[in-house]
Design brief:
By secondary structure, this protein is of the alpha/beta class. It is built from 12 helices and 13 strands. It folds into 2 domains: 128 residues, Rossmann fold (3-Layer(aba) Sandwich), CATH 3.40.50; 191 residues, NAD(P)-binding Rossmann-like Domain (Rossmann fold, 3-Layer(aba) Sandwich). It is 34% helix and 15% strand. The chain is globular and about 60 Å long.
Length: 335
């Protein structure tokens, strides 16, 4: 059987081809799955998609009409998939429920320290042989307070690093993580976390109840010199509200690896035609803001685990097995 994989990065292609070798043929495309590209999947029973694929009603209808029966998403998040429509169409949908939490947690800290110590500005200066220190002053992390929204596997890994820095730990989640409590984390309400934290890092999944969890009200409560980091999902932050606060000169730094309107932008080269998103363009003009391209997960270790699990999900489907990775429990069909 040949599998069609959408949205494959150049670094990923040899890893995917090697993982599927001897099991299935795989055709890797660098284009993302959208309404325009969905017809390419005609005749492929199994497709694999990336986190920025659009699997809405129209795309799923096109896939089903073309004979697709199984979608293997190469990510943990699945807010881009209309699962109700997929189930109605009899599609099997699986995701990667777990991969290295350290990849994202370590990158979140990379963002935090980069904006705190003004690394990008310093690097740009020294490339021009400007070695002044004006405007580069940061702050020690030791003794300051970090607020972690979401203390699952990634949030816990982030907290362990914060503990190593010697920080005071505040957490918020629907359920407490005993490992974080053991590290000294105090669970509080969101408003208290926002008000007391010098660094706020987001590690909650995107659900309707968490969309814009960082809204105008939350931003208003935060310290003027706080650092805000988001390495989870872009829509956790109301970007328009954030831009408004940044225009007022607030926040020591903002590190964003995700953006709520990143589909059609991130993972693509827009350097020639430019970006038409005025909000993103404005966001990136602030010297205390660092935006990266949804790369927190992008390590050899994490991507390798993602691909390994994707192969397992495909094998489970073809051999009639189920696992905890299946999101839509359509009846698998043995080929």
């Amino acid at each position: 059987m040949e599998i069609l994989a959408f949205g494959v990065q150049a670094d990923e292609k040899p890893l995917i081809e090697k993982a599927f070798a001897g099991l299935h043929d795989v055709r890797c495309l660098d284009v993302f799955l959208t309404e325009d590209t969905a017809p390419i999947a005609a005749g492929y029973e199994i497709i694999s998609t990336s986190v920025n694929a659009s699997l809405d009603n129209r795309v799923l209808q096109t896939l089903a009409a073309g004979g697709t029966q199984m979608i293997a998403q190469r990510s943990t998040g699945f807010n881009n998939i209309d699962l109700l429509v997929a189930e109605r169409l009899g599609l099997t949908v699986a995701r990667v429920s777990y991969y290295s939490p350290y990849s994202v947690a370590e990158f979140a800290w990379t963002l935090a320290m980069a904006v705190n110590r003004r690394i990008v500005r310093a690097s740009n200066r020294t490339r021009d042989f400007d070695f002044r220190l004006d405007g580069l002053m940061g702050r020690d992390m030791r003794g300051r307070t970090v607020g972690v929204l979401g203390t699952g596997k990634i949030g816990e890994a982030f907290t362990r690093i914060a503990h190593g820095f010697g920080m005071n730990l505040l957490g918020w989640d629907v359920a407490q993580n005993p490992a974080c409590v053991e590290l000294g984390m105090k669970y509080v309400e969101k408003d208290q976390l926002f008000a007391e934290s010098d660094l706020v890092s987001l590690h909650v999944p995107l659900f309707p109840e968490t969309k814009h969890i960082i809204n105008a009200e939350a931003l208003a409560v935060m310290k003027d010199e706080a650092i805000l980091v988001n390495s989870s999902r872009g829509a956790l932050i109301d970007t328009e509200a954030l831009v408004g606060e940044l225009r007022r000169g607030r926040f020591a730094g903002v590190g964003l690896d995700v953006y709520e309107a990143e589909a059609g932008l991130f993972f693509l080269d827009k350097s020639i035609q430019g970006v038409q998103d005025d909000t993103l363009a404005r966001l990136m003009t602030f010297p205390n803001v660092l935006v990266t391209s949804h790369q927190a997960y992008y390590t050899v270790d994490a991507v390798g685990q993602i691909i390994e699990t994707t192969v397992k999900n495909v094998q489970d489907y073809t051999e009639g097995r189920r696992s905890e990775n299946v999101l839509v429990p359509a009846e698998p069909k043995v080929s």
